Design the sequence.
């Protein structure tokens, strides 16, 4: 198994230059979760207006896979309706379980994370931001800043 | 010690390596560089063969059958207890309770001793460098008894700050539970000093020996240890081997933990009486083969000489700290190898430890990345995780070189 399958250029780019890594002010949903395996923690802020994600950002620290996945996620769901965002999260999960093989057209940069499937221990890293997003979309988070769950 | 030759005070590592079959295999097409012995050690051929030999020639349940096999198995199991007891300087084999290791041992003392003897207002003194297995059971005990947990703080240099020990150990202190060697920082707290302070106020001391016993000569009586935990799988023994040393009178007053077969004297419908220690704490069928295998591991370590083991690891640790530091890594814990063992945690050029470990794996180098079951310590150090290389009898300076070479590859891929 070649390491290049895991550390693809686009992943390293999102890791070294994360998109939307900041906090959001005002009326936003904020959720945090951590990965007990490695202590990584990710917070996702979403602004939802008229059933649509109008702004999304993340904060936290973690490995290249968790950071790149969070960064790509913010780009991928920005502007989507809640059902679309939910569907994308479900598709992403399926990709990480190996049961969905999306094209680049369908998935954009996110398709680069497919290589993680071959490294079972790292799947949790890739999924962490999406877990937090789904919590956030479900409205289970505390608006304006929540405590870590775990 | 049939088949094991007693070696001189300095260890011949290349000869030691020949005793470990797993070192013959590679990983990802490279030689295997196993630097995760703090998680679990590799096993010498003699230990692996002891397991096979037991199952092929002696297997029977112990302490029950009157036939020859059962008597052989029983006497091998009890002989193993004697060898482990002698290895740690216990006054008598009956002071050694066999179980699955440190986690089970700490839970046993927390349940059988702390729950029985501690009251609201009492204090249990731990430290900031404890593994979760020497923390979470005390949280249980504190919650049930109303006792309070206190902590010896970490000092700047990665050792424990004992400047406030005089107030941390006071008339309320009933139990001190500290590690003998940190699995993250390698620090070796001065157990004898802390034991003396504990005993001066009538408190008992438990030492988490998971990392200490495999790597340093230990004498429970000389150090004044009341309870010592032993994890066999970290000292060349099989997984799920190990046990708890306890001073005889303490084991006698403790409540049993698991009830069931083998630990009883007489069972009525409503109540039972129990055997004397150690069997009071050994309910059900034990890990017989594993404890017999552990005794062979103890023989192996004795043949090397624990002073030689310690000297070898000090040398290797010093070399690793120097090379890692030169390569630009920040090494946590004491820099003086007299104060520490060979678990070397580090942070390298802001590359997340998981990424580092992943790239190193591709080079055949096995290190641990994560919080090492020490989340409170990670918070104090201000990092989410560390990378950790840890050494044992079979590791060599050229493996430290392989580690450092692999770090350069990680930097090429992940460095900013």
Sequence:
């Amino acid at each position: 198994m070649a390491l290049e399958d895991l550390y693809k250029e686009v992943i390293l780019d999102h890791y070294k230059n994360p998109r939307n890594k900041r906090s959001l002010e005002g009326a936003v949903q904020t959720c945090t979760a951590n990965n007990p395996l490695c202590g990584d923690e990710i917070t996702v802020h979403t602004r939802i207006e008229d059933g649509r994600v109008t702004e999304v950002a993340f904060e936290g620290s973690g490995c290249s896979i968790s950071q790149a996945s969070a960064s790509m996620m913010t780009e991928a769901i920005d502007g989507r309706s809640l059902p679309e965002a939910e569907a994308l999260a479900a598709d992403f999960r399926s990709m990480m379980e190996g049961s969905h093989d999306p094209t680049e057209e369908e998935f954009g940069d996110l398709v680069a994370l497919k290589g993680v499937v071959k490294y079972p221990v790292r799947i949790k890293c890739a999924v962490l931001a999406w877990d937090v997003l789904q919590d956030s979309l479900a409205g289970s988070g505390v608006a304006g800043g929540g405590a870590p769950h775990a | 010690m049939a088949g094991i030759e007693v070696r001189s005070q300095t260890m011949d590592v290349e000869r030691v390596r020949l005793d470990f079959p797993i070192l013959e295999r590679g990983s990802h097409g490279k030689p295997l560089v196993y630097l995760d012995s703090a998680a679990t050690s590799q096993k010498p051929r003699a230990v692996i063969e002891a397991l096979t030999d037991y199952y092929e020639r002696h297997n029977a349940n112990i302490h029950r059958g009157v036939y020859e096999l059962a008597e052989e198995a029983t006497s091998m199991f009890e002989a193993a207890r004697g060898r482990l007891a002698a290895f740690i300087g216990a006054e008598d084999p009956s002071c050694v309770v066999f179980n699955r290791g440190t986690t089970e041992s700490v839970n046993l003392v927390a349940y059988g001793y702390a729950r029985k003897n501690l009251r609201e207002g009492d204090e249990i003194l731990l430290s900031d460098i404890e593994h979760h297995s020497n923390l979470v059971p005390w949280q249980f005990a504190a919650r049930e008894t109303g006792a309070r947990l206190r902590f010896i703080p970490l000092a700047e240099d990665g050792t424990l700050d004992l400047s406030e020990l005089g107030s941390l150990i006071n008339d309320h202190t009933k139990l001190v539970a500290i590690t003998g060697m940190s699995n993250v920082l390698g620090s070796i707290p001065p157990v004898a000093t802390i034991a003396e302070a504990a005993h001066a106020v009538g408190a008992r001391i438990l030492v988490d020996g998971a990392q200490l016993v495999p790597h340093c000569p230990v004498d429970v009586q000389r150090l004044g240890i009341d309870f010592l935990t032993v994890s066999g799988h970290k000292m060349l023994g099989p997984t799920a081997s190990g046990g708890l040393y306890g001073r005889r009178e303490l084991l006698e007053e403790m409540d049993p933990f698991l009830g069931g077969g083998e630990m009883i004297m007489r069972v009525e419908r409503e109540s039972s009486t129990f055997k004397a220690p150690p069997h009071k704490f050994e309910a059900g069928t034990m890990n017989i083969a594993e404890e017999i295998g552990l005794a062979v591991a103890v023989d192996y370590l004795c043949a090397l000489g624990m002073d030689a083991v310690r000297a070898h690891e000090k040398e290797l640790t010093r070399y690793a700290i120097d090379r890692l530091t030169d390569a630009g890594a920040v090494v946590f814990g004491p820099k003086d190898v007299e104060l520490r063992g060979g678990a070397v945690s580090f942070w390298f050029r802001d590359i997340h430890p998981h990424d580092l470990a992943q790239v190193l794996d591709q080079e055949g180098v096995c290190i641990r990345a994560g919080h090492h079951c020490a989340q409170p310590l990670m918070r104090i150090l201000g990092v989410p995780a560390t990378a950790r290389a840890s050494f044992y009898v079979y590791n060599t300076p050229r493996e430290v070189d392989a580690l450092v070479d692999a770090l350069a590859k990680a930097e090429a891929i992940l460095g900013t």
Remarks:
- The radius of gyration of chain A is 14 Å.
- Chain A touches chain B through 19 residues (CB under 8 Å).
- Chain A has five helices and three strands.
- Residues 2 and 115 of chain A are 10 Å apart (CA to CA).
